[in-house]
Amino acid sequence: MFSRLREDLASVRERDPAARSTLEVLTCYPGIHALIFHRIAHRAWMRGWHWLGRFISHVSRFLTGIEIHPGAVIGRRVFIDHGMGVVIGETAEIGDDCTIYQAVTLGGTSLYRGTKRHPTLGRGVVVGAGAKVLGGFTVGDGVKIGSNAVVVKPVPAGATAVGNPARLIDPERDAAREQKAEQIGFSAYGVTRDMDDPVSKALHGLLDHSVDTDRRLEAIIARLEAAGIKLDEAVAQGDAFDAGRLSKLVD
Fold it and tell me: How far apart are CA 69 and CA 53, in angstroms?
């Protein structure tokens, strides 16, 4: 138990720049206190002392603002930062080196006892403030869940999930879109490289494609007119397309 406590203290100092000393982390970080209480409560729970486990968990919740069911399984070097309002359900499993911020819920959607009702987090998962992960599915290693996201289905390893309901961000596709936008001179419409809204990204991608298509059509029309082919006036002029205005609406 003390070896795991030393690991926890060291991991907090590595991940929290506000931590100035090991003594400060040990005495002033509710996430550390909640983990200490949970290990005692979990041992009681596993021995069949369910009331005692729940009572220790209740005392921990009163003192730290963090509610961890004594049946939950928590790995090594888990960091619960700030922690107020965190709720971790009975069948939840948290892998090593995870980071959980305040107001996170690892909750269940099933009412049947004896079933896997709460999520399993792989190694190195980061769950942002206010996020809700609901259901008995697996969140893969290295996943990042954005603040206030609501995750209701499995997330593959290494992905980033944001929004409500959560959607997955594809960093490779986003990089390709940015490169394409730069090639056609359409990269400045309020789009940042670190934008984390996948719906907005998709709409910007459609706008980029529309601009590219318009340029191709203009080039084709110019070639046809140069070749002496007369086009209908409505076809030649077309409708005005203000991509900049639409892009601002999307932002």
Answer: 8
Q: Name residues whose C-beta falls within 8 Å of residue 78's C-beta, 6 or more positions apart in sequence.
A: 8, 11, 35, 94, 96, 97, 98, 99, 100
Residue 80 belongs to what H/E stretch?
strand 79-80
Could you tell me the two tokens for 78? 């888990």
Contacts of 48 (CB under 8 A, 6+ apart): none
Which of 43, 31, 140 lies closest to 78, judged by CA?
31
pTM summary value: 0.67
The pLDDT tens digits for 152-208 are 999 999 888 988 888 887 665 555 555 554 544 433 333 334 445 566 667 767 777
| Both structure tokens of 43 | 């041992």
| Three-state secondary-structure class, residue 224 | helix
| 92 neighbors 69 (Cβ within 8 angstroms) | yes
Q: Return phi, psi of residue 107, to 5°.
A: -110, 175
Phi, psi of 196 (to 5 degrees): -110, 15
Greatest CA separation found in the chain?
Answer: 91
Q: Tell me how far apart the alpha carbons of residues 3 and 6 are, in angstroms, rounded to a whole number.
A: 5
Q: CA 120 to CA 110: how far, in whole Å?
A: 15
* Inter-residue contact 84 to 103 (CB < 8 Å): yes
Coil, helix or strand at residue 181: helix
At 193, list the tokens. Answer: 């490289």
Half-sphere exposure of 188 (CA within 13 A, CB side): 1
Both structure tokens of 55: 């009572």
